[in-house]
Amino acid sequence: MSESSYLGSIETLAASRRGRIGSATVGLLIGCALLALLVAAWVVVLTVGGSELDRADARLASEARGATAEFSGRVAVADARAGTLAARPALQRAVLRRDRRTVRRLVGARSDIAVYAGRRLLFGSVPPGAVTRSVAVVSHGRSVGRVVGVIALNQSGHPAAGPPFRPCGPRRAG
């Protein structure tokens, strides 16, 4: 082999080796750049997704507070209605005499009230699973019955359809 052909082949090999190293370096740099881009995109998705999740959590918490307030209002109204009826002397006398007709007349067509004389139901009904507020009917210092305010629940455990809760303002003497 001649010296010129030997040097030519070595230079060709060295050049191709540099080309391979250069292309490997370029490939590695492109791979690192793609990895950095992928990590940046992942961080952006987590940040945006996290704020969406936070907004959804805030909306859900707000709905839960609203539902709790409405349900508490319905319970308070049932309690007040039962207490008002139990305090009426005419109802107390009717419960003491176990007079169903007078109890029915005094309570009216309310489906959210039940009246008991002792353990005996005089008026209304209490559906299974209903939330109740019970107020004792007292005559001469002794409990003779009770008036029960009923908040009926549907099959999913939510208050059954009824009139919307409307809180009362302060009462004025007059």
Radius of gyration: 40 Å
Which descriptor suits the 3D outline?
A: rod-shaped
- Going by helix content, strand content and strand pairing, the class is alpha+beta
How many separate domains make up the residues? 1
CATH topology: Beta-Lactamase
Q: Give the uncertain stretches in residue-range form.
A: 163-174
Please give the CATH class. Alpha Beta
CATH second-level architecture: 2-Layer Sandwich
Distance between the termini: 127 Å
What is the element string, with H for helices and E for strands? HHHEEEE
Major beta-sheet overview: 4 strands, antiparallel
- Side by side, the strands of the main sheet go 2-1-4-3
β-strand amount: 15-25%
Average the pLDDT over all residues and give the rounded result: 78
Number of helices: 3
Helix content: 55-70%
What can you see in these coordinates?
It contains three helices and four strands. It is α+β, with helices and mostly antiparallel strands and 174 residues long. It has a single domain, classed as Beta-Lactamase, CATH 3.30.450. Strands 2-1-4-3 form a four-stranded antiparallel β-sheet. A hairpin with a 2-residue loop joins strand 3 and strand 4. The C terminus is likely disordered.
